[in-house]
Amino acid sequence: MKALLRRDLALALRAGGGFGLGLAFFLIVTVLVPFGVGPQSELLSRIAPGILWLGALLACLLSLDRLLALDWEDGTLDLLATSPLPLEAALLVKALAHWITTGLPLVLAAPLLGVLLNLPASGYLWLVVSLALGTPALSVIGTFGAALTVGVKRGGLLMSLLVLPLYVPTLIFGAEVARRGATGMATETPLLMLAGITLGVIALMPFASAAALRVNLR
Amino acid sequence: MTLSVKDLSVARGGVPVLIGVSFELRAGQAMILRGPNGSGKTTMLRTLAGLQLPLSGEVHGAEDKIAYAAHSDGLKSMLTVEENLTFWAEVFGAAGISAAVEAFELHDLRDRLAGTLSAGQKRRLGLARLLVTRRPIWVLDEPTVSLDAKAVEMFAQAVRDHLTAGGMALIATHIELGLAEAQVFDVTTHRAGPDALAGASDEAFL
Question: Does the structure show a pLDDT above 50 at B206?
Fold first, then answer.
């Protein structure tokens, strides 16, 4: 499992685009928003948590179609499926690698982009906490989407349509944590819901992903 | 240790291709699968490797013993030859890649990126992966594609060494490998007729 994680990280670093692409997309989306809604700093600070969460979610989605498609094309998935490593574990490790290369940089960059959207000072901590708790769920659910569409040529759009509705609970509670934090309200309830959703999908989704992938490998 | 296949029927894309295949393979034995394109060799090998379910029949002694190699080698072009082999060695829990490097004469290529290798060199690397898996049953689908005569001899020697060490090999190929002791199994005698097993299907969703 460690070998698979190391290999995926090395590939993401060397092939380029792994670390940078999602991050650059996140940056551009959040920079574009003030141009779109105008320079009213009060309005911006009100919508900042939601925009930052939406940006992070879309940036996460962007790199999902590479998650399994490359391994499918060169036959690695066939060989992994016949290896001693359970497919469930392999997919969980791949989701972890995806989170480290996509989700984690988003979490770290979010406070910086909060400045651009005039996020209130009290919101920064909760924005980072909510993203750190929520983005692993995005990677794990995304792996399921990638496993469902792995054999489909140009399946990226289809995968987005399948995955985005599954992202709704994470988005609702994640953005709610950040919004309540920014306005100085209690964040406990949405935070617990967000953590619950993430833990639930980490525990269950790898089984669904592996089942979908086994069907696609036939 | 025996690989025994009883009355196996396999399908591809919902259409039965082979029916009633039975054979037994013991330690140290090799079997060559022959048959024209589309006769079901690949489907049968994928079934034995556990990548798809049989329509009917039983396979014994295959689980967690098979090293599978097909048309694509599962190589990452951005990793070096050594890194590719080490990855598979670690996944299969085996230590050391030196024997595999030696058997397929990959010393000089160790630090090259796999993406810069020629088709034949990639194939040699893909076959070297079999050695680092330490699995007893090799299931090989057209292993000699794009290999030159010398590399084919290298491969045949690796198979012979594997058999001498008590391994087994099941090889679908169109060329003569020079494995004199191998049994030959012609799949054409088991091809499914047009209405054989009508209605049977391996599709997951209907």
Answer: no
DSSP element (H, E) containing B2: strand B2-12
- As a dihedral over the C-alpha atoms of residue A63, residue A69, residue A73, residue A76, rounded to 10 degrees, the angle is 100
Helical spans, DSSP H, in B51-94: 81-91
8-state DSSP, B50: T
Structure confidence at residue B134 (pLDDT): 85
User: Residues 34..93 of B with a Cβ closer than 8 Å to A: which?
Assistant: 46, 49-53, 64, 66-79, 83, 86-88, 90-93
Tokens 């013991």 label which residue? Answer: B26
Spell out which residues of chain B touch residue A79, defining contact as CB-CB under 8 Å. Answer: 68-69, 74, 88, 129
Q: How far is CA A63 from CA A106, A135, A141, in A?
A: 13, 13, 13
Give contacts of A85 with chain B, Cβ < 8 Å.
91
ipTM score: 0.84
Contact B190/B9 with Cβ under 8 angstroms? Answer: no
Q: CA-CA distance, A74 to A151, in Å (whole number)?
A: 12
Cα A192 off chain centre by: 19
Tokens linked to B77: 């072009």
3-class DSSP state of B57: strand
